Amino acid sequence: MSLKKNRNFASKPDLVSTTLIYPVTLTTETNTTNSGMTITTNQNAPLGQNPFQVQNSSGTIKWTVPVAGGPKTNGTDARAYNAAGTKYVAFNGQSSPQYYQYYDGTNSYKLWSGTGAPSSDTVGTAVAGDYYMRKATYDYPIMAAKSVSVGAVAANRYQCVAPTHDYAAAAGENNAISYLPNKALYSNFKVVLATAPGTGITRTQTFRYNSASTALSFTITHPSTSGSDTTDTVVTTPDLTAQKGISIAFMASGTPAASLAKWRILQQSSAQHLHATSGATSSNSAARYMGIQDTGVGTTAAQAAQIFPDTGKLINFTATLSGSTGSGSYTVELYKGTYGSETATGVSFTLTGTGIVPYTPYETSVDVAPDDSLYWKITPNNTPTAAIVNVSMEYISSTAGNYVLLGGTGAANASNSATNYNSWYGNGAWNATEANVQALGYATTLKALYARVSADTGAAKTRTCTFRINGADSAATVTFNNTGVTKNWTGSVSIATDDNINVSSVPSGTPTAANIRYGLCLNASITSTACWYVCTAGGSPGTWSQII
Amino acid sequence: MSVFKTGSILTTGTAVGNTAPGFTITYGPTAGVSVQGFQIVDYNNAPIFAVPKASNGQIAVYGDYFGAYNNYLTDIGIKCDAKRNPGALWMTDGTWMGMRIWSGTGAPSATTVNGPASPGDLYIRIDTPSTSNQRVYQCTAGGSPGTWTGRL
Q1: Where are the alpha helices (DSSP H) in A61-197?
Q2: Could you tell me whether strands A260-269 and A212-221 are parallel, antiparallel, or unpaired per DSSP bridges?
Q3: Among all residues of chain B, which has the CA nearest to that of A311?
Q4: B-contacting residues in A 78-107 (Cβ below 8 Å)
Q5: pLDDT per residue over A10-53, tens digit each?
Q6: Chain A residues whose beta carbon lies within 8 Å of the beta carbon of residue B13
Q7: Cβ of A35 and B39 within 8 Å?
Q8: What are the angstrom distances between the C-alpha of A152 and each of A173, A228, A341, B57?
């Protein structure tokens, strides 16, 4: 069959929704600029529609051109040949991970890239002469935002990795899962109990990935009050079709003594991961608001808005739900701006069905700067079945290794007559007892503290907000004195491994009742600088030599 | 308007070893260089994908990726990233941890690295090939353009 020139297929009813038997040849016009064949996407075509694709006889897609996301091969290469069709350069999609393939005129070589030294995770079958480009990674410590209850009964309890929130077994792990915006390696897990488990009782703490226990785990046996796993590591990899989350499980034999617990874990990655979860199911009838590094929701934006302490970009957004929304849905939108005047950033998800939404890597980035106010707005549509809303993203600072912890609360005022303490990040309530909010530190450096009060102090009154280490004030402090509702400190305060850390609020002269939000900017130590390797002997992954 | 709702072309494969293509578009003998042999446009006629005659049948993607995937539903793929302006080569290790390779004239700038770049990204500078540490740069802090260090 041969089609001549441009054809108006609509005038050929037999060509609508039909199958043409090969070969089909279409010859373009000879003297016009009309295209040979045009596919016009429908006005309401979803972004995932594939206007054109090539399949094999069993229906497997080999090449496709979606409305959004760009043309892509599936298990095959994208090649550019020389005129003779004998040599080519290619994006090789035949293996996982994929690589760039090039020729020296006779043989082909490959360019790989990833984190860590070349390994079977990052390199397929290599030959001598291949190159590998290693990205930098940093040690981002994740420390339980405060001392949390681990229960007095022999039942599993789950906690969010960041920010910490504690859930009983009855609530289920779903409430505590943080989903993954990108790949990371977790290690150096440690827990310190306030009270030993009790005679004959053990407590087991486990880092969980994809709702399964991992080797990153240890047991505390009475009368010990602490334990750690400094040898095992867990690599977490996001999945486009089945989002995988992480959590911490506390389990016990028998009936342990009630205790507070502090814990920390190390995340190695090229960028910091920020997690937020509604914790419990979000309202299915009214809008709710959630910080960007938060657990729980508020009924107003002011309750959720967090103050940002650094300059950089938020990227790689993802969102998901704990379950089906029925016939309704949730819209989740990121807001940013001056406190009280935040506007939608354009980062928006509509969560329906199971709510698993593909990641949006780098397709959108949001610039952030000190004093920016940020929150997620969760809007239910058509009365969805209530579900937990989870969002995650990465933060890339303009300063290598910088990361942020966002704390305070917009929902409850700090005392205006007594010293109060709060966890150093997360949406924690102010507490009169410092030990109740202390976190277990990991070696890192505090570089900035940005704080905001919901109302200024009033004349001749002050409120001082201070970062504290081991029960003592550090140099990181800001004082509100009726000269503005935002204050900041910059400098350098070292935090040592196992330090007890938290934030205080000290009023003087009974300042106006106010809540306090603060953002901490810290600097992580670099795990590995970016470097380049050349393969000196082929294999999987073969032998590699660092050259730069 | 030309509407071809849901069409498919079946290469029957009845002849084993038959390598004839299923669908061929032949440029007319005097077709102008701007003739698109095949194109996909959105409802406002903005191009999404095209195969123009110019440059001997290059394929063109507009403001999006062009990549190779092992499984396009689950993995990240290696891509030409034209969502950035200018574009970049975006590697993968199975996640988004792969580096980008940028290129341009002058040191990395917001003009040549319309990021976000991230630590480990590579920039190939083309205007000073004889100057040490001005040939290849490495990103040490993310941003647009971020912070870059000359390495070669």
Answers
A1: none
A2: unpaired
A3: B143
A4: 78, 83, 90-100
A5: 444 444 444 555 556 666 665 566 677 788 887 777 777 788 88
A6: 57
A7: yes
A8: 18, 21, 45, 71
Selecting from B43, B121, B143 the residue whose C-beta is nearest the C-beta of A42 gives B43
Cβ proximity of A159 and A258 under 8 Å: no
* Chain A residues closer than 8 Å to B102 by CB: none
Q: Tens digits of per-residue pLDDT, A379-436?
A: 999 999 998 898 999 998 988 889 999 999 888 999 999 999 998 888 778 999 999 8
Do A234 and A247 touch, CB atoms closer than 8 A? no
Model confidence pLDDT, tens digit, residues B25-69: 777 777 777 778 788 888 888 888 888 776 555 788 888 888 898
Distance to chain A for B18, nearest Cα, Å? 11
Widest distance between CA atoms in chain B: 61
User: How far off is chain A from B132, nearest CA to CA, in Å?
Assistant: 14
- Between CA A421 and CA A418 the distance in angstroms is 10
DSSP bridge pairs for A468: A473, A502
Token look-up 């850390």 returns A501
Match 């979606």 to its residue by tokens.
Answer: A66
Q: What is the pTM of this model?
A: 0.83
Give me the total of CB pairs closer than 8 Å, taking one residue from chain A and one from chain B: 339
Beta strands per DSSP E along A238-303? 245-252, 260-269, 272-277, 288-290, 294-295
What's the CA dihedral at A194, A196, A197, A199 to 10 degrees?
Answer: -160
Q: Please answer whether residues B117 and B110 qualify as being in contact, where contact means their C-beta atoms are separated by less than 8 angstroms.
A: no
* Residue contact B78–A26, C-beta within 8 A: no
